[in-house]
Structures are given as C-alpha cells and as structure tokens.
Design goal:
- It is a single chain.
- By secondary structure, the chain is α/β, with parallel strands linked by helices.
- The protein has a five-stranded mixed β-sheet.
- A hairpin with a 2-residue loop joins strand 2 and strand 3.
- Helix 1 runs antiparallel to helix 2, helix 2 crosses helix 6 and helix 4 runs parallel beside helix 5.
- The relative contact order is 0.15.
C-alpha cells in the first residue's frame, strides 16, 4: 500500500474516533433522560463496544499492508472457544469426593473462553485479541489465564491486548518502539501453563487518570499518530508471522 494512502486511512481512523468518543457523552445523557440506562453504565457500554470496532479497522488496514488475500481474511467478533478439563494432575489437589465427581462427569468439565476479536486466515484461527478502553492489573491476570487456556486448544494461536489508554504499570503509554512492559503482566504470564506471550498495543498518550474520562470534551485525548502507526505495523508483523507458520497451506495464496 502506498504510504500516502496508509496515512490517509490512519487520519480517517483518528477523525472517526474523535467523533464517536465525544458523541458518547450525548448518548449517555439521552439514556438517563429516557430512563433506559445510567450515565456511567452507558459510558462503559459504549466505550466497550467501540474498542473492538476500532481494533477491527486497524487489523484490516494491517492485513492490507501485509498483502494478505483479503477474501480469506475473517475478523470475527466475540468468538468463543470451548476448553475441556484434560489435566489429570488437577485431581491430585482436590479431595477424594470432588475427584470422584470430576471423573464421573468429565464430559461436562469445560468452560468457554471469549476472544473479543478472533482472526482467521484461510479458515485457520491465527490470532486472538482482547479489546479494552483500558486494562488494569486484575484484567491482565484474567487475560493471562484465558490465553493459556486457549493455547491448550489452539497451540499456534498468538495473542494481543488492544487498549485505548493504559491503566497498567509500565511504559505502554509512552512513544516507544519496544516496551519493557508491565510487572503485573510479566508475573501473571510466568504463572500460567502452557506459556504464552501477549503483545500490547495502546492508542492514546499518557496513563489513564481515574475521573477524567476521554468522553468529556475537556479530557479528550486524540489517537497518537506514532502509536497508531506502531499498532498497524505491529499487527502487520503478527499477521505475516502467523501466515508463514508451517501449519498454514501457503500454496493456496
């Protein structure tokens, strides 16, 4: 893709983001007036819905940049994976009655893991994305476990966290080509098995400040062009690495 076209599409993303974010405040006020929702709850709902929408547009741009066959690219929202209990070592740490119950009902011992966005290429699941307005320490603990559970079903899938603002300790809010990362996320990932890595992409400058919602005009933060370009290039690299893995039949490209 020509650089001018890429920059034009990135500016479109930034403009659309500003328009939609600043419009959410009016949506929340209208919900209160109509009695259909609380102000804070509506803000959280609308921002939560916006994050995967923006991410999907960025991933699509990254796929175009990577030269993928767009007919065979699927960006699937809210994809659920069923994960079954398969590690018999778990039975060693529960009491005998519980172990007996688990064994007798092993077919119903499962849970479902949700990907906010699942990327498929030639019908192969290649990447899972968690999308957040911001992620905090508790969210990263849950994300580390989710990704590790997914890895039991899809060993070759890779993972990322896409967030508007950084609520984590670490340097994700800064304009850097390489992040040292978050102590909380590194520690959480070290505790799960199988081991997984989570790439983190952040669009806005500065750390999140509680009580200063970007939906308020005085607190709005535009998408950083540096961070947006880094995110596009990051997803481009992820896609290229994944489609070049041996488990994909590249001859059909």
């Amino acid at each position: 893709m020509k650089q001018e076209l890429k920059l034009s599409k990135m500016e479109e993303i930034r403009a659309a983001f500003k328009q939609q974010v600043l419009g959410i405040n009016s949506i929340a006020l209208a919900a209160v007036a109509a009695g259909s929702g609380a102000y804070g709850g509506t803000l959280r709902k609308e921002m939560g819905a916006l994050a995967p929408q923006v991410c999907a547009v960025i991933v699509y741009l990254a796929a175009e940049e990577a030269g993928l066959d767009m007919k065979h690219l699927k960006i699937v929202p809210k994809h659920f994976t069923t994960v079954y209990l398969t590690d018999a070592n778990y039975l060693d740490v529960v009491n005998n009655d519980t172990a007996e119950y688990v064994v007798e009902n092993i077919g119903s011992m499962y849970t479902k893991v949700e990907s906010d966005i699942a990327i498929f290429y030639y019908d192969t699941f290649i990447h899972s994305i968690e999308c957040k307005k911001y992620a905090d320490k508790t969210m990263t603990h849950r994300l580390a476990l989710d990704c590790s559970m997914l890895a039991r079903v899809y060993p070759t899938v890779t993972y990322s966290l896409f967030q508007f603002e950084s609520g984590l300790m670490g340097d994700y809010h800064r304009d850097l080509e390489f992040y040292e990362g978050s102590p909380a996320l590194h520690t959480a990932l070290s505790c799960v098995t199988p081991k997984v890595n989570i790439d983190v992409f952040t669009l806005l400058d500065h750390k999140r400040v509680a009580g200063k919602s970007i939906t308020n005009k005085g607190c709005f933060k535009p998408i950083s062009m540096f961070k947006l370009n880094r995110t596009v290039e990051g997803y481009k690299d992820i896609l290229l690495r994944q489609v070049d893995r041996k488990h994909l039949v590249l001859g059909c490209r």
